[in-house]
Amino acid sequence: MPRRRDEMLLPAKTVGTLHMGGEFVIAGGGDDGVEQDGPWVPVKDAANPLRFGIGLAVLAKINLGSSETYSLTLNFQDATDGSGTGAADFGTAFPITVIDTGATVDGLVATRIHQSLENARAFIRVQYTITISTGSVDRVDVAICGVVSEDSEPIA
Question: Hey, which CATH number is domain 15-149, 1.10.3470, 2.60.120, 2.60.40, 3.90.1570?
């Protein structure tokens, strides 16, 4: 059944949200090429054992010099509790690569990702790594927000 327009931002059975924002990486800086951890988000409990998916929107504002690149690799981890006990990679990594062929100032890249949580443990988090090819003036700002839902289909 098609969703009404007012239902398209959040699925009808939304059970949790995830927000990571204000993160930035400067080429050659301390966070360039370093994996960053998001917060642990509950996705299952005894009262609600079924959670089918998490949908993410990844927004990146990029400033790159001529013929430079940046890549963002995103993956999920699951764990048995909110402190990360037994944390392990879950599902497949999602590589996002942007190759710039000319100087870009305030370029915007938006990506949507959906991951089934059918076999996940009680908590999940997002990890991501941004790698910039060169130049200390190159910068990538990233914000990630997500919705944990009982919908098995990707979020529209």
Answer: 2.60.120
